[in-house]
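INFO batch 0412 | record 1 of 1 | parsing
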Amino acid sequence: MRKKIIVAGAGHGGLVAAYRLAIKGYDVTVYERAEQESDLGYPWEDFFDVNTFPDAGLPMPETGKIPKVPISFYGPNPDDDPICQTVNDGEYEMHMYRKDLYAHLMKYVKDAGVKMVYGCEIQEPIMIGNRVIGIKTSKGDFTAELIIDACGVDSPLRTKLPSYLGIQNELKKYDYFYAYRAYYNRLEGFEDVKDEYKVYFVDDGKEGLSWAVTTKDSVDLLVGRFEPFGDDEIKRMYNICKQDNPHLGSELLLGGQICKIPVRQPIAILVADGYAAVGDSACMTVPIVGSGIANSIRAGVLLSKAVLADKNGEFSIHTLWKYQTDYYKEIGASMATVDLFKIFLTRITKDDFAFFFGNKILTSEDLSINSNETSVKAMFSNITFSIIVDRLKKVGGNPDLLKKLGSIALSAGKLKLIMTRFPSAYNRAAVIKWANRYNKLFAGLVEDL
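INFO prediction complete | emitting tokens
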């Protein structure tokens, strides 16, 4: 009998795992709350690694591959020059609307024989003892040998798992963004745009970031905050961006919703008996900006490899631990390091930011991109412990900022040590001990800064 696998939610990583397992003969069903396929995906576009599709064993889309766009980072002082990424000639990335990305994925998912059930609200996991055996939904109860959780940041599966499994249920402030994203028309007469991709770290003391990305026909405006916000904040940021981007029009072309996305390190434990979290359910994004397509799809590949390696079809925490180990080794550890910098950015003042930018504590070399990395993943990949220490010497005239940078440097060293003690094989006592240290590091840093 073919092993049954349920994918809860049509997240990118879950769909890739579904595709790769279905072509190997597994009986895979995706249960999704959207009413139909055309409803999948946010109404916006994303940049991600050009190697994402080949790495997943999927054909490249016919369109979407473009030269990489360098990002310019702006501080609060308009007199300070932005810090701009360095992009080498011949560097490319994917640039696709979510709808087009889903259409591309779904073609192969359906061809592989994956069954899709739409209009199905997932409510909670079904368990026997320590094992997840199924899902309760608005269309009834469904069971399988393995449940893949791709339900998103507030997954009704992850958030309702018993605490003794050690999987983090609830996220905390600074773990996620409330993000408004909309496309406005681009006005004519402003052809000479200096920076096409502008990121603003501080907006009059508000915690979060914003960006304005100029394309041929539109301006992509994002407002990201750690607290809920409404129309007043959107209008305020629109007006601020309009001053710096006079080509920003007033006609809303696409988007305009506020959604919740994770912007933190991956959760400490990804698996349990009969259960594996992937994508936003496991916080597999780039912490600074919340982009998770490349990480999620790669996680779907790693999960499928762990499942295929389980020749007895046990899908226990012991056999699924290979997925967790591979993810942290290839992606998760680096994303955790990036999250340290995100926490730092959330805890410094507007004056700190002005000092930070004005004195070049962060340089364009730190933000350089190489040909094997997606731009968002590589944004801070060159900031090593030694570089942080070197930057401390430039901050001597700002004791408060020096203290905060010192905390980041110390935490970076602690994180490196914690990752060297990552359990390569599953042992409950060792895993819980490691997870507690990992979680305590980030929670303590938020409180200390």
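INFO post-check: The longest strand covers residues 248-262.
INFO record closed
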